[in-house]
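1st attempt posting a full record on here, be nice pls
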Amino acid sequence: MHAINRNDFQLSIAPMMDWTDRHCRYFHRLLSPHARLYTEMVTSAALVRGKQVRLLEHSHEEHPVALQLGGSDPVELAKAAVMGAQAGYDEINLNVGCPSDRVQSGKFGACLMREPDLVGDCVRAMADVVDVPVTVKCRIGVDDQDEYADLQRFTTRMIEAGVDILVVHARKAWLEGLSPKENREIPPLDYERVYRLKREFPELTVVINGGITTVEAVREHLGQVDGVMIGRAAYHDPFVLAKLEADLYGTPLPERSDVLDRMRIYIEAELARGTQLKHITRHILGLYQGEPGARGFRRQLSEGAHLPGADWGLIEAAMAPLRQAA
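the predicted structure (as tokens):
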């Protein structure tokens, strides 16, 4: 396996379906120069059989950035991993945690936690053909397979297959009876189970995920595990990433308006390519979360970004009252 530096995994931003696209990652990189970024899940079939290479598109500024794959065919995943590595991704991550129906029907995601040997075969197949780290993102359990011993067995198999880094969402997944949204909220968080995993497998780099929203919480978790992965907080209140960057790496806290000003060149280049403004502004709506004027900023962008001809001027107009108040 590729040599890794545990510090590289101290802070990362979760792969989120229909959310962490390349525009989102570019924005997050401006907020946190050090955070590890992840793509939304791309299925191995889409890359290998569908030849949808456009799904691998990313900008140079995003690094370090990982490609998250979904699938359960070792041969196909190996081919997809090679495509990801050739496209320049710094890590290939296998999704063994997503509980959506679409994922289950394709036999990937959380249902694979019931088949650790198959997951091990998938990981080994990918690790044999790429020089970047192959990592796994999983849950603490699935359905009635909910004993610590199940997670322990799964982890042992991952290590045997060559996994050095395990990202653990500290909730189990109910594949029957709960929607994907409910699976992010209803099963209780069990951070202690992830801590125990780290104690029992000290050689493994363990990254914890699930319900973590504040700098203080991140600090607390880092006393027990190697890294923290931020999920929904990164888009509800993206400026928390800048606060984490300042706390963990000593990077000066930027002004929110300066972050947007630095987005301008990217946004104008994307508009020139034919990208609609709404595909970018949806990621920045929460930038002023909790600040005076945040609602007006969100409203102006939400109402205007989808209109024909919407450009940087809309963002400038939405920022104007906030600049005056600063």
